[in-house]
Structure formats: C-alpha cells, structure tokens
Amino acid sequence: FFVSTPVAPIASTSDADVAVSSSTINNKDCSSGHDNQMSSNKIDESELFATVLNESMTLTSDNLEVCSRRMVNVEHLFKQIFNSSVGHEPFNCNVTNMYLTKEKRVGLISIFHLKCKMCGLEQTLETDVLDRSTKDMDVNLATTLAAVSKGIGYSQCEEMMAVLNVPFMAHKTYQRCHKSVAEVICKTALQTIEKAGKEEAALAIASGDVDEEGILLLTVIM
C-alpha cells in the first residue's frame, strides 16, 4: 500500500486499519485519474522517501514487545549503537530505521536482533561482551562471583533478580559459571598463601627466629 503520492500517517497498525487505509488510498488514486498523476510528478523525491519511511516505521514499530529490565554494559552498548549509526546503502538509513525482531538471552546477557525497515539489513546489539578472549568478566561470571563472595547460592540470586524484574540465568548456566569461578578462586587462594608464606619467612629471618637446623620458627595463632 505504498503509493506514489504522500498520504497521512496511519494512526493504527492493526490489520483492519491497514486494510481500510490501503483500500481508501487505492480508491482515491483511481478516482483522481490524470490529475493525481500530474500532481505526483511535482513531488520532491526526498519528501516522497520520508513519507514512505514514516509509514513503514508506523507499521513495523510494534513487531516485538520487550518487557522487564536488563543488566547492561553501557560502554559496550553505546559502541555498537555508534558503529551502526552509519547509513546503510542504498537509502542511507541507519539504526533509527530498524525494528526489533527477536531477543536471545545467554544468561543475563541479551542479544537483540534488529532489521532495517527500508533495506532489510540485519544486525545485533549485545548488552554485554560475549568475547571470551577479553580480560573483563561478563555479567554472568561477575554475578556468580558476587554470590560466592556473599555466601549465597542460585536460589537467593534468582529471588533477588525476580524482585528487580530481571530475567535470571538458567541453573545449568549458573553451575557452569560457578565451576569457572571456583577454579579462579582456588588458583588465586594458592598464590595468596604462597605469597604470605614468603613474607612470613622473610620476617622470621629478619628477627632471628631460626633454630639450630635452620628451620624458620613462625608464630601461628589459632
């Protein structure tokens, strides 16, 4: 129902309204005849493009409804938005002309799939970094580490996220993150113990706390 003459924006996106609007436009074109064809030749191309774009946005803006809250890495999200603001060929459309088709969740990370209304280009926006090669922990690992540090488990985290209205990760995902976090905690604990032992040994030697056989005498408080 995109026609060669500018029309008023459609107020509703329901199937009935679209059908009525399409019928009205087509009837108006047929009744206008030669006069309508003459007036269309005088329309500026940019004005026509803007009219068609506005109608397209009206019809596809409510394709998918996203509810509740998300935990977002603001820096990462803005970088993606700024990179996608470059115009798409051949209509020079950008992220403002795209609509949401679906959301894929990887634990607490959401991947939003977008599609351009004009050129059909598809791309994604992530709420956090999914690249495992980076040094920074993603939100799934960070949340699991916070739970371990506070002495709580999956059920307590799930209840807290439910109050915040944030979709939480599946139990299998949490266990996988917990295993990764536990390995890091164990490795870090051993390094800390070794470092502390060397410091205690240096202090014992400096203070002369060594027996006849050269064994360090360390004070242990229990």
Automatic annotation (TrEMBL):
Residues 69-220 form the Mutator-like transposase domain. InterPro entries: Mutator_transp_dom (IPR049012). This is Mutator-like transposase domain-containing protein. It comes from Ignelater luminosus.
